[in-house]
Amino acid sequence: MDIGEATVGGTLSAGGLGTASFRHGLQVDQVERLDVVTGTGERVVCSRSRNAALFDAVRGGQGQFGVIVEAWIRLRRAGSRIRQYQLLYRDFDRFADDFERVVGDGRFDHLKAETRLHTGKIIMAAGIEYDDDVDDGDALRGLGHDDVTSNDAVDVGRAGIYPAWGFSRRNHHPWRDWFLPWSTLRTLIAQPWLTPRSVPRAPFSWTGVYPIRAAPEAAPLVMRPQGNLITSYSILAVLGDHDWATRLTGRLREIDRTLVGLGAKSYLSGHVAYAHGGWEEHYGDQLALAKQWKREFDPNGVFEPNGLPFG
Ligand SMILES: Cc1cc2nc3c(=O)[nH]c(=O)nc-3n(C[C@H](O)[C@H](O)[C@H](O)COP(=O)(O)OP(=O)(O)OC[C@H]3O[C@@H](n4cnc5c(N)ncnc54)[C@H](O)[C@@H]3O)c2cc1C
Question: Which of 100, 114, 153, 248 is deepest in the core (most CB within 10 A)?
Answer without folding.
Answer: 248
